[in-house]
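@channel sequence for tomorrow's demo:
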Amino acid sequence: MNSKFYMRTRIIMGTDCAAKNGELFKTLGKKALIVTGTQSAKKNGAEQDVISALESAGIYGVR
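structure tokens (generated this afternoon):
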């Protein structure tokens, strides 16, 4: 079996990177699916940071 896979990726890192780059989410669509592990994203606040950035951009997250 032959297969090909291509996935264009942009990685943004740094303190408050979701909040500082929230406008980039608008270029990706109107809805979002947030996939995280069981607890770590909630405990360290990353999940809420992304949800807030999505909401500010007018994008609705699905958990």
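heads up for whoever presents: Strands lie at 31-33, 60-62.
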